[in-house]
């Protein structure tokens, strides 16, 4: 079982696109996957074909302890469920502001309803901020995956994001690690994309071993800019249902394979010790 927050406080960097299509790729590989939509804009829900009308059961009700996780969860495809969100979720920032332990509300709800035990992957689509919803995600997962659009200011934004994960790791969730950076909206062949990628690689390899991102991998798969990926949400379909042979579908399938391979690497037995003699 793996729990992954798709996080970046910048908007428009492909968090939702990555949450939905990575989840769909993993589900197509036979893994059971649950997406938790933590953005009050509800884009991930919509992208997976759900329009959570006001008053319907959503992740807000889970935060407010007004329903079980399974009351809010909906099956949208084989192996793929979503706990949807809508604008109701915006109230959580205010409602929890004076609640002691507000960082752990989501973690405790998921534990209570044993969600993790029933899925191979739980994927959280974070909102574009570092507020209480994102902190709840960071306290409920062990992995952070960062979608990054390689442009000039991308690395500046990353330092704030890394600072936040370091703080959460120190104070709230010792198991949290940044496990991967996915380069999205990638313009192949441009100098800028290659330069930013190289700067990122240098930054990661020169980081102290005790930072939560020391072992972060830059995924080999580059998610190229592809118009089908931008069209799919309005049809309420993942890229595999909307246009399964387009470059966007190929890229997300490949990213899914890389994410699966990390799990196998992490779970594989240690190599036998070489005999020194
Ligand atoms: P975020 O969740 O970080 O705000 P989104 O996933 O909503 O970002 O993506 C922002 C916009 O870019 C959306 O309109 C989405 O459809 C589009 N988009 C994301 N990735 C790609 C891509 N690889 N190619 C083309 N459009 C993309
Ligand atoms: Mg989004």
UniProtKB/TrEMBL annotation:
<dbReference type="InterPro" id="IPR027417">
    <property type="entry name" value="P-loop_NTPase"/>
</dbReference>
<dbReference type="InterPro" id="IPR050678">
    <property type="entry name" value="DNA_Partitioning_ATPase"/>
</dbReference>
<protein>
    <submittedName>
        <fullName>Sporulation initiation inhibitor protein soj</fullName>
    </submittedName>
</protein>
<feature type="domain" description="AAA">
    <location>
        <begin position="1"/>
        <end position="177"/>
    </location>
</feature>
<dbReference type="Pfam" id="PF13614">
    <property type="entry name" value="AAA_31"/>
</dbReference>
<dbReference type="InterPro" id="IPR025669">
    <property type="entry name" value="AAA_dom"/>
</dbReference>
């Amino acid at each position: 079982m793996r729990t992954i927050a798709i996080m970046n406080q910048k908007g428009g960097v492909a968090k939702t696109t990555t949450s939905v299509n990575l989840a769909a790729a993993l589900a197509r590989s036979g893994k059971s996957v649950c997406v938790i939509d933590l953005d009050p804009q509800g884009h991930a829900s919509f992208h997976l074909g759900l329009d959570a009308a006001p008053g319907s059961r959503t992740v807000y009700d889970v935060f407010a302890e007004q329903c079980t996780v399974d009351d809010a969860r909906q099956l949208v495809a084989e192996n793929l469920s979503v706990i949807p969100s809508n604008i109701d979720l915006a109230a959580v920032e205010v409602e929890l502001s004076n609640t002691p332990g507000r960082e752990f509300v989501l973690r405790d709800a998921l534990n209570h309803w044993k969600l993790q035990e029933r899925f191979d992957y739980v994927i959280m689509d974070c909102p574009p901020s570092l507020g209480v919803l994102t902190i709840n995600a960071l306290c409920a997962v062990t992995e952070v995956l960062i979608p990054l659009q390689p442009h000039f200011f991308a690395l500046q934004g990353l330092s704030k994001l890394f600072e936040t994960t370091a703080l959460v790791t120190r104070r709230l969730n010792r198991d949290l690690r940044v496990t991967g950076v996915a380069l999205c909206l990638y313009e192949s062949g441009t100098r800028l994309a290659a330069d930013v990628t190289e700067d990122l690689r240098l930054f990661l390899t020169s980081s102290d071993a005790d930072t939560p991102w020391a072992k972060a991998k830059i995924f080999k798969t580059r998610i190229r800019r592809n118009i089908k990926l931008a069209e799919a949400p309005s049809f309420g379909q993942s890229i595999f249902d909307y246009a399964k042979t387009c470059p966007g579908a190929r890229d997300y399938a490949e990213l899914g394979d890389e994410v699966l391979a990390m799990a196998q690497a992490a779970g594989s037995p240690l190599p036998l010790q070489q005999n020194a003699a």
